[in-house]
Amino acid sequence: MKINAILFASLSALACVSAPAFAGDKQTWPVTVKIVGDGNTIEGTGSIGNARNSLDSNQSIGCGLYASTLVSGVKGFCNARTSGGQVASCTVTSPQLLEVIKAITSDSLISFQHPVPTSGQPTCTLISVSTSSLYEPKNH
Questions:
Q1: pLDDT tens column, 115-124
Q2: Is the dihedral of CA 117, 121, 122, 127 positive or negative?
Q3: Which long-range contacts (CB under 8 A, 24 or more apart) does 120-124 make?
């Protein structure tokens, strides 16, 4: 019991000393679309706030969910468009990735990947969502 108390006190002190301070830190995440990894994967990344607040009328990024009485189950999608008009888009059927889409807020940073399409609409293979005070909030 005494060892646990000492360990807890030591870890608490270490966390206070070593935690970096980022008060007021800000990051810009304009929408990008690029080929990554082995050259067979496309990635779309950007923050909703940066896309919405951009001066151009092209930038957009987002993911969504949909269902229909004609098709069983919930489906999803992600899409991104850069200020230069580059586009990444994919569909989502994986239950794990559908759960990640549910975590998106109006101020999230979104990143998604899909294989370079050879035909038809590609399926998303990765979706990452992060919400932080670092990201520019969406102006309404």
A1: 998 888 999 9
A2: positive
A3: 121/89, 121/90, 121/91, 122/42, 122/89, 122/90, 122/91, 123/90, 123/91, 123/92, 123/93, 124/76, 124/77, 124/78, 124/90, 124/91, 124/92, 124/94, 124/97
The helix (H) or strand (E) run that includes residue 88 is strand 87-92
**123 phi and psi angles, rounded to 5 deg:** -100, 135
- Consecutive H or E run containing 115: strand 109-115
DSSP secondary-structure letter at 69? T
Tokens of 136: 């520019």
pTM of the model: 0.79
Residues constituting the chain: 140
The answer to whether 31 and 82 have CB atoms below 8 angstroms apart is yes
pLDDT in tens, 44-83: 999 999 999 999 999 999 999 999 999 889 999 999 999 9
